[in-house]
Write a structure and sequence with these properties.
binds 6-O-phosphono-beta-D-fructofuranose; Rossmann fold; 3 domains; 548 residues; carbohydrate derivative binding; G6P_Isomerase_C; gluconeogenesis; globular; EC 5.3.1.9; 24 helices; five-stranded parallel β-sheet; single chain; six-stranded mixed β-sheet; alpha/beta
């Protein structure tokens, strides 16, 4: 396969980049006022504006050519057809099937996967309804009021983020809680206010081999037993599990009727649409969960069928390639202007960085181009008082996603107006900046004398030229959230497809895990093995020293 950076479209983009080098975003927009209509797309309850980008129609022309030359349309077709595109693990990638409806057909090796998805959804509904009706009784005959999801990575971040995002849809009970970290401080904090007789755990682990999850599940089991509940009753009334590892579920003692399946064609970071999202369904109800699936389905249909020119995830993915590979941007900021989306940046860190943080192509050749960006961010107005300084006047190019909701779920209209005003103002300020002449005029208007103006001007000039996308949700409903997450998933897919990498494996997380197993043994035995370098061994010695 021709390396992507040898393709004609790539070469054309390099030339185009050189021509664009000195063109300021402000001028690009002024020179093309019509882009406000053309570079804005609505899909369901999302309206996405990508006018504020260092691009022209020519840029997109070349980027579309790059998508053609890397066979992106055929790669999309193979994704939806259930081809084993996760080549290193020989797996299909079909999380879209999880949000399918009665009319959907998704096959892996010719087998229709929809019946098992629908059957699992029906079982999820039953569990949710029992729990939400207060009819799930613990071993002591008391109704369950608290559900704790134990899982990490994809078995935590999605459900956790969605439960925060959909907070206005949550009912009083059951309350949902999350434990992910191996740090005992977290499980201690979460369990402290809970009553074991009224607490149900969901052990969420596709592999059921994850150190953190196994340790937390064992601790949960002990906590329940310590309260005097007998083990068989604990296992039959206080645990549900989501996993593909039946043997480990049996060894842990989860009864078959309390197991929910997950399939090898669902990647952990794409799994909140499966029973992995049970905590979401329990928190907002199964109807709400299905609305979230419907929102994602809408984005799937759009991505699958919209022509390139109108295809939103594809366009955003192409812009990401443009910034990473031609304009040298190392990162992508995610700035939700809605506190309920505060965990979206962490969620997207796994979705994007575990998918596209790769250094070899699908056939194992080292890449000679930049791949996935560093994804980071925080709720917008908080960020404004922290890292925005660097975005406005630092030395890095940082494409940003501004995400806001037009209608809030709270009555504080004044707050909401100010929130949205800040979001709009920031994207405008980042784009326009403030020239030296404008800065001098602004300082003069404050009555400063000439020497003070001379001294302060360099510090008050804003170069601008920082690009951004603005994503507006009509409101933060389950449906809109589903579309938003699927938008990011398909953008990530598009970029991986162009870079020629496997976006669906994650070998890079393994080395540290293996080495940690050795160190755990050494900390337990007090004996440091010979495998360490002297500097790491010294740290280990310090950690072994008894502390008061
Ligand atoms: O270590 C990374 C990872 O494998 C993620 O890809 C996954 O989402 C997470 O761990 C949890 O895995 P599991 O659901 O198997 O416990």
């Amino acid at each position: 396969m021709t390396p992507v950076d040898q393709l004609p479209a790539w070469k054309a983009l390099e030339t185009h980049r050189d021509q664009m080098k000195n063109r300021h975003l402000r001028a690009l927009c002024t020179d093309d006022p019509g882009r406000a209509d053309r570079w804005r797309t609505r899909v369901g309850h999302l309206e996405v504006d990508y006018t504020k980008h260092r691009a022209t129609e020519d840029t997109f022309h070349h980027l579309f050519a790059l998508a053609e030359q890397t066979d992106v349309p055929a790669q999309i077709a193979r994704l939806f057809a259930g081809a084993r595109i996760n080549t290193t693990e020989q797996r299909a990638v079909l999380h879209m099937a999880l949000r399918g409806d009665a009319h959907s057909v998704f096959r892996v090796d010719g087998e229709d996967v929809m019946p098992q998805i629908m059957a699992t959804r029906a079982r999820m509904r039953q569990a949710c309804e029992t729990l939400r009706a207060g009819a799930w009784l613990g071993a002591a005959g008391e109704p369950v009021t608290d559900v704790v999801n134990i899982g990490i990575g994809g078995s935590d971040l999605g459900p956790f983020m969605a439960c925060e995002a959909l907070q206005p849809y949550l009912t009083d009970t059951p309350r949902v809680h999350f434990v992910s970290n191996i740090d005992g401080a977290q499980i201690s904090r979460v369990l402290a206010p809970l009553d074991p007789r009224r607490t149900l755990f969901i052990v969420n682990s596709k592999s059921f081999g994850t150190l953190e999850t196994k340790a937390n599940a064992d601790t949960a089991k002990h906590w329940l037993q310590q309260s005097g509940l007998p083990l068989d009753a604990v296992m039959s009334r206080h645990f549900l599990a989501v996993s593909a590892n039946q043997a480990a579920l049996s060894a842990f003692g989860i009864p078959e009727e309390h197991r929910f399946p997950i399939w090898d064609w669902v990647g952990g970071r794409y799994s909140l649409w499966s029973a992995t999202g049970l905590a979401i369904a329990i928190a907002i109800g199964m109807d709400g969960f299905e609305s979230m699936l419907a929102g994602a389905r809408l984005m799937d249909e759009h991505f699958r069928h919209a022509p390139m020119i109108d295809n939103l995830p594809l366009r955003l993915g192409l812009l990401g390639v443009w910034y990473a590979d031609f304009l040298g941007a190392a990162s992508q900021a995610v700035l939700p202007y809605d506190d309920r989306l505060r965990s979206l940046p962490s969620y997207l860190q796994q979705a994007d960085m575990e998918s596209n943080g790769k250094r070899v192509t699908r056939d194992g050749q080292a890449v000679t181009w930049a791949t996935g960006p560093i994804v980071w961010g925080a709720p917008g107005t908080n960020g404004q008082h922290a890292f925005f300084q660097l975005m406005h006047q630092g030395t890095h190019l940082i494409p940003a996603d501004f995400i806001g909701c037009i209608r809030p779920h709270h009555p504080h209209t004044r707050h909401h107006r100010a929130l949205i005003a800040n979001m709009l103002a920031q994207s405008e300020a980042l784009m326009h900046g403030r020239t030296e002449a404008e800065t001098r005029a602004a300082l003069a208007a404050r009555g400063l004398d000439e020497s003070r103006i001379d001294a302060l001007t360099p510090h008050n000039v804003f170069p601008g030229n920082q690009p951004s996308t603005t994503i507006l949700l009509d409101a933060l409903t389950p449906e809109a959230l589903g579309s938003l997450i699927a938008l990011y998933e398909h953008r990530i897919f598009t970029q991986g497809a162009i870079w020629g990498i496997n976006s669906f494996d994650q070998w890079g997380v393994e080395l540290g895990k293996i080495m940690a197993q050795t160190v755990i043994g050494e900390l337990e035995s007090g004996q440091i093995g010979a495998s360490h370098d002297p500097w790491s061994a010294a740290l280990l010695t310090t950690c072994l020293a008894p502390t008061d």
